[in-house]
Write a structure and sequence with these properties.
Length: 371
């Protein structure tokens, strides 16, 4: 679980002039493997630190590297998770964030914490209600951030005293009861979507029992044998369904926004146009192609973002060079109460890098001011 306060602190971090070290590392193979991986990740950072002319900044970065390397010895993060570490000794920043999923290992030194992998993880952190059943029993779980929580078991023949006269099959009674429990469960946990696993014919027989208002929220189904497979296998199967669902949803969002841009609706596509829209706080929903990278410039005084230049077009302040202006766009959109989606699926968004649903019109010509 990513703590909201820590996340806000990272998002609101203001550059202090000292380098911020951000490291993402996957945890597997025990402490010594983790130590080796961290050493290889921070190798270039050490070279960079040694080349730093300011003694104070060099010391700050070296101290951050030492603390990062110490992670393996401190132990703690569970196997299979990814730890994000954000450190700037001189600015008093040190945060570790554990996410229960794999992200690419990397170490980045920049003026601000490198949050893009964390943002990408968070925009996939929906709550799902997972139902795993056969004709005898159903198990309901909450699937959140890759983890299964709280099992609720429903067994046939359901609650005593329920009218069964017109519903003679025990399996049908189980399905009806399970559908009721799922409905309550979704309401209580605020799960957005439903996943169903079980023997294929059982799942097909169960689905008609799902209440009408939940049918559009069935994200997918999967084949599963509860007699021989446990919760961990259910989790893996469910994650695969979630992945397919998320990729399909991304593709449909991309199609929708590009259609909107083509037809002159409230949309923008491409880095310069979207930057102009971000600067006007016009972006409601930003779609970012996962592979896209672009350097740019940022004004730490007023938050203005651009592609090139030494002075801010808005306040005249000095601009800082940023290695990943797309990440800064994402953070700015979230800071202005917008949403961000990192698109992993191969889509036509790769030709534009980014596209945005807008709150109000920002003409394409506005793109010229960002560089
Ligand atoms: Zn400015």
């Amino acid at each position: 679980m990513v703590d909201q306060d820590i996340f806000d602190r990272l998002l609101q971090f203001r550059p202090s002039g000292a380098p911020v070290l951000s490291v993402y590392v996957g945890v597997d193979g025990g402490p010594s493997a983790l130590r080796t991986k961290l050493e290889s990740l921070v190798g270039e950072v050490l070279e960079q630190a040694e080349a730093e002319p300011s003694q104070a900044l060099r010391r700050s970065l070296l101290s951050d590297v030492a603390r990062v390397l110490d992670l393996a010895a401190r132990g703690g993060p569970p196997e299979g998770s990814t730890v994000g570490i954000f450190a700037c000794h001189r600015a008093g920043l040190y945060e570790e964030v554990v996410v229960p999923r794999r992200a690419r290992d990397r170490a980045v030194v920049d003026a601000t914490p490198y949050l893009r992998p964390l943002l990408a993880f968070l925009d996939e952190s929906r709550r799902y209600c997972l139902v795993v059943l056969d004709r005898m029993q159903a198990c309901l779980y909450e699937l959140f951030m890759g983890e299964l929580e709280g099992a609720t078991i429903v067994v046939t023949p359901g609650k005593p005293g329920r009218p069964v006269g017109r519903d003679p099959s025990p399996a049908h009674r189980l399905f009806r009861e399970t559908a009721d429990v799922a409905d309550e469960f979704i309401h209580a946990t605020r799960a957005e979507l439903l996943l169903v696993g079980g023997p294929e014919e059982t799942v097909a027989a169960f689905l008609p029992f799902v209440p009408h208002h939940l049918r559009g929220r069935v994200a997918g189904t999967f084949a599963f044998d509860p007699r021989t497979m446990g919760p961990e296998q259910a989790r893996c199967c469910a994650e695969a369904v979630v992945d397919r669902y998320e990729r399909a949803e991304e593709a449909s969002l991309v199609a929708e926004i590009l259609d909107r841009v083509t037809t002159g609706g409230l949309g923008a596509a491409g880095i310069p146009w979207c930057l102009a829209a971000v600067n006007e706080e016009a972006v409601q929903f930003l779609l970012i192609d996962e592979e896209a990278r672009a350097s740019g410039s940022a004004c730490d005084a007023c938050g203005w973002l651009g592609l090139v230049g030494a002075t801010c077009q808005r306040c005249g302040g000095p601009l800082r060079v940023t290695q990943d202006v797309i990440e800064e766009m994402g953070a700015a959109v979230i800071g202005a109460s917008g949403r961000v989606e990192h698109v992993q699926a191969p889509t036509p968004l790769s030709q534009h890098s980014v596209a945005a649903f807008l709150r109000f019109d920002v003409p394409h010509s506005a793109a010229q001011v960002v560089g």
